[in-house]
Structures are given as C-alpha cells and as structure tokens.
Amino acid sequence: MLSFIVRRVLAAVGTLVLSSVLVFLAVQALPGDVATQVLGKDATPDAVAALREKLKLDQPAWERYADWIGGALHGDFGASLVSGKAVGGEVGMYLGNSALIALVTVLFAVTGSIVLGILAGLYRDRWPDHLISTVSLVGMSVPEFVVATVLVLCFSVALPWFPAVVLYGPEATVGQLMPAVWLPALALAVVMAAYIVRMARTSVIDVMASEYVTTARLKGLSTWRVVTRHALPSALLPTLHVIALNVAWLAGGVAVVENVFNYPGIGKLMLASVQNRDLPVIQAIALISAVVYVVCNLAADLGAMALNPKLRTRGRTR
Amino acid sequence: MTTLDTPAATPAVPAAPRSAAARAWRTVRSSRAASIGLAIVAVHVLIALLAPVLTSYDPIANNADQALLGPSAQHWAGTDQYGRDVLARVLYGGRYALGVSVAATLVTLLIGTVVGCAAALRGGWFDDVLGRVLDAVLSIPSVLALLVVVTALGTGPSVIVLAIAIVYVPQVVRVVRGAALAVVPADYVTAARARGESTWAILRREILPNITDVVCVEFAMRASWVVLLISSLSFLGFGADPPTPDWGLMVAENRTAITVVPMASLAPIIALATLVVGLNLAADGLSKAWGVDRIREGS
C-alpha cells in the first residue's frame, strides 16, 4: 500500500522532469535563432545581440535548462520579454483569476453531471434518459466558443443579467471579477459535463444491475437509499478520473472562453504571450500547467484508491 | 500504409480488406446511430464538394452595398459585414474544416496505431520509456502546444496537420496499445513469432486485423475532437487566414454583429455542430455495435 503510493509519487515526479525538458526543448528549439524569432526579421543586429546576451543564448542548452529549472524551483521564472516584470508574479496573478473560473466550473460540472447521470441511469431507455443523452451529445459537439457566444446572446444581450465582457485588468479583486465569472464557468461546465454525464450514467447502470443492489431492494430499502448508498459512490469514482483528465483540457478551454469574455486569466495571458513570443512566460505557463495536470492525476489515482478497496491490494497494472 | 507492404505480406492482402469492409458495412446498417451519423457526415462531404453548384455567390467577394442584410430571397442566410453571402461561406466552409480535419486525423491515427502496436508487441523498456514520454506530452495543455507550433512554423494547413498530430498521437497510442495488448498473448501471435516473422509482418497480419474496430471507432471520435480543435484555433485567429471561408473564423468575424445579423453567426455554428454530432453518433454507434468499450480502453 505505502510502496504503491511512493511508486506513484516517484513516477509523477519523473513525468514532471520529462515534461519540463520537453517544454524547454520545444520553446528553445523552435526553428531559427530564438532572438530573431522574438524580435522579428527586421530587428537590428545590435538588438539581436543584446537579446542573445540577455537570454544567455551563447551558453549550451543544458546549462540554460539547469538555470531555468533551478530558478523555477525557487519560484523565479525570469523576466517577461515584453513587460520586463518578473514572470512568476505575473503568471501567478492571472492564474489566481483563472482558478476562480476553474473552481466554479468544476463545481457546476460535477454536481450537474452527477445528478443528470444518475437520473439517466435510473430511467434507462425511457424519456429522461433519451433527453439527457441527446443534450449531452449536443454539448459534446459544440466548441467552447459557441457555447460562450450563445450564453452571451441569452444572458447578456437578451436578458442583461451578466456582463458580456470584463473591463478590469489582471489586478482586479475577487469582488470585481465575481459577476463576470458565471458565464465563462457555465460555458466550460456545459462542455465538461457532457463527457462526465455519460460516464456517470454507465456506472450507475452497472451498479443498479448488480446483485448487492438487488439484495438491497429485496431488503425493502427505498430507491432514495439505494441511490445514495450505492449509485452515488459508484458514479463518483470514474468521475474523479475524468475530472483529472479534463484539467489539461480545461487549460485550453479556458484560453478560448477567456478570450470571448476578455477575462484577465491565464488563457488570455497564454494567447498574448504566444502572439508576442514572450518565451519565459510561455515556458512558465506550460510548466505550471504540467504541474497542475500531474498533481491532479496523482490525486485522482490516490483518491480512487481510497474510495475503492479493491484497488488497494492491486499491484501495478500497467 | 505502403511501408507495411512487405513481399511476405502480399498473399494475405486480397482477402482481408474485402471481408473487413463487408463486416463494417453490416455493422453500420445494423446500428441506427452509426447510419444516421455517417449519413450526416456524408451529406457534409457532398455539400463541401458540390458547393460551387449549390450557390452562385463567391464566398470571398466583398460587396459593400449589400453588407449586414437579413435573410432574403437573394441571400437565404443574409450577408456579413463585408457583404459576403453567409450561405455561400457556410457551404464552402466545410472544405477547410473537412479537408484539414481528415488529413490531421489520418496522420494522427497512422502514427498512433503503428507506435501503439509496436509498444504492445515489443514491451519491455521501449514500452516503459514511451509511456513516460507520452505522459509528459499529455501534461502540456494541447491548445498551448498547438499555439507554439503554429506561431513557430506559420499557419499553413500542413503545419496545423503536424501540430494536431503532435497533440493527439499520445492519446491514440494509449488506446491502440491497450487494444493490441489484448491480442499479443494470443497463440497465433506466438506462433508467428516462433516462425521468425518480422515485427512488421506480425503487426500487419496478426495484430492490425484484430484491432480494426478499435481504430475505426477511434478515428470517428478523434475526428470530432479535431474538427472542434481546428475550429477553435480558427476562432482564436491561429487557424484559417481571412478571407478563407471557415466556420470558426466566421463566428469570430460575426460575433460582434450578432444582434444585427444573428444568422451570420448561427449558420456556421449549426454547420459545425451537425458535423460533430454526426461524427460522435458514428463513433458511438460503431463502438456499441462492435462492443468496443471506450471507457475501458483508457481514453
């Protein structure tokens, strides 16, 4: 049991080291000279030389990698090539704003999809199931920017309840951002929930057909008790994993949705830094996303182990 | 697949594809979801091919006098801010979406299948190292990876195909590896190994025919994701270049005028959604009919 946890944590650390190398290689080994890439083809030789100096391009790649990762471990990701500010602080500020969206999204998506998934599973092949399955199919089939656009049309234009765009910068307080969080979070939650609903439905159907549920029914337990005691935990288990897998997707979805609403989060920073070729910022965002993804997956694995006794005794499966 | 055509494999070729195709056709006809889905996709392909016949308007011709018109007899879906016919742009828009998506999905599936099968067949350190590398790639957000590749190499269709392959190959490898692992212990694979057949030959003749169903379902499902990703990329301004008629780009262009000409945004949205619904239905129907458990395959 303990050795399994240790092995999982070690594997996670290994994955992280590898992804940091990949991130560094991908960004630094872009075709052509990095300095010219950043400054554009019309840059003066002096400016290119100065930037080469600043980025320490004359040192071998592995030394620059060691510098970068050593700094990153202490929270120092270098300075932004555009604003000149420390990358760590800047990314942290945007990340905090995005965390607000992510939190509300996961909350919406999980509660909504578990309830709908259990309903669909209980009413298998009857009209509630067909309705929920059809809606989730449509939810899966429209990109985030479409959901976001439709939501703006409904709840900002037709019914002016929520702001269509955010007018604050990244320094906005939680109170200022709060009214603007709901629509982006809802847009992301709709797309995310569409995947989780199907997962929850399948596991509920499996459980309801199991012998212990039949026994529980024969004992005369109410449907409500059967659902809360058996269907709910079994629907939660695979959901945990889907959420962890969705974290990587969430970072991308956030980029699109934040741009629709002009929300000052990590997605907007990501797009801006790619457009400006602000390499330190791109590297920092990629590394932080990788950390979040790996930690979430680790948490999901360990959480699944805590919820499912069968997994505790199982050895390495792959 | 030409690389797999070793002389030793040729005798098996004529029989295998025909029976597989017949089997696939029977499955499609037996599953209502799959037939509806494939029919929707077929209609989209037909529309994209026949766009010049279906409309007489040029999808990229500006006409300032006719800007921002509502639906009328001349312009069934109205016009956008440059006076371009929305219906014509929607009909032509499928060409970019379908062309790039199909190419990207094919490349992704091809690489993913070969690597996934090789990992299952070889096992050992190759499999372990590969698993770690794939985990690392998966941990980087796909949109960010796409954006970095596209900014570095430009926004041509071939670059987008390459970028999509980088992003989605790891997931395909995992699914295919999972499916192939179930075949590898089979006696006929052991027999083929004992006969001293090459890895390629075993792959081609023993493994691939047994995981065709998984690969087909994977293709339909992956294609729907690729369509969504490419349209998102266009929406963000990193995909199709204006004035190319593309659905994601159209929504981005017309979103600000959504209160004036809602059809200019809604028409491409409907086109995009129906195509992806079709692909999803096909993937669902096929996986149900073939008994491919997508959840257990590890996607």
Give a description of the structure.
The complex is a heterodimer of chains A (318) and B (299). By secondary structure, chain A is mainly α. Chain A has 2 domains: 2-73, no CATH class; 88-317, MetI-like fold, CATH 1.10.3720.10. Chain A has helices at residues 2-28, 34-39, 45-54, 61-73, 87-122, 127-141, 144-158, 174-208, 211-218, 223-261, 266-276, 279-307, 309-313. In chain A, helix 6 (127-141) crosses helix 8 (174-208). The longest helix of chain A is centred in the last third of the chain and has 39 residues, at 223-261. Chain A is globular and about 85 Å long. In chain B, helix 3 runs antiparallel to helix 4 and helix 8 (199-236) runs parallel beside helix 9 (247-254). Chain B contains 10 helices and no strands. Mean pLDDT of chain B is 80; it is low at 1-16 and 295-299. By secondary structure, chain B is mostly helical. Chain B has helices at residues 15-30, 32-54, 86-122, 124-138, 142-153, 157-183, 187-194, 199-236, 247-254, 262-290. The longest helix of chain B is centred in the C-terminal third of the chain and has 38 residues, at 199-236. Chains A and B meet through helix 1, helix 6, helix 7, helix 10 and helix 11 of A and helix 4, helix 5, helix 8, helix 9 and helix 10 of B.
Layout of SSEs?
The complex is a heterodimer of chains A (318) and B (299).
Chain A: H1 2-28, H2 34-39, H3 45-54, H4 61-73, H5 87-122, H6 127-141, H7 144-158, H8 174-208, H9 211-218, H10 223-261, H11 266-276, H12 279-307, H13 309-313
Chain B: H1 15-30, H2 32-54, H3 86-122, H4 124-138, H5 142-153, H6 157-183, H7 187-194, H8 199-236, H9 247-254, H10 262-290
Helix pairs in contact in B: 1-2, 2-3, 2-10, 3-4, 3-6, 3-8, 3-10, 4-6, 5-6, 6-8, 7-8, 8-9, 8-10, 9-10
